[in-house]
Amino acid sequence: MPPVFTPLNDDLTINYGIIPAYAKFLADSGIKSVLVGGTTGEHMSLSVADRKKVIDAWVAVAKTTGLHIQVQVGGAPLADVTELVRFLGKKKIIDTKDLIISGVFSHLLLQKHNSTTEDVEL
């Protein structure tokens, strides 16, 4: 499962418009699953609001490409990580097994290991 990069415009704003073509290219190349915000590093440099928009963009294209989406929600501020987990839980779009949470307090965020994010007690 490859980590996907966050596409940027020349002015360093996020290029959401290219994500559908990027996802189609990956799916057409035989990729079945992608890691949004993973090891490429730039995701944790973005604001939580921008991270949510990137996640939404990938979830939207997953519906048309069949890609399985995993999301890295870790970060330095624990409050940001908590907010992203709650965001995904409210949308009921990602299972906790599809979350990658890095950081010192990550074990505190997932109280039920095989539950959906709506069941996460924060």
TrEMBL record:
The keyword Lyase applies. Gene3D superfamilies: Aldolase class I. GO terms for molecular function: N-acetylneuraminate lyase activity. It holds the Pfam family DHDPS. This is N-acetylneuraminate lyase. It comes from Helicoverpa armigera (Cotton bollworm). It is an enzyme of class 4 (lyase). Transmembrane segments: none annotated. PANTHER family: DIHYDRODIPICOLINATE SYNTHASE, N-ACETYLNEURAMINATE LYASE. Pathway: Amino-sugar metabolism; N-acetylneuraminate degradation. Its EC number is 4.1.3.3. GO terms for cellular component: cytoplasm. It catalyses: aceneuramate = aldehydo-N-acetyl-D-mannosamine + pyruvate.
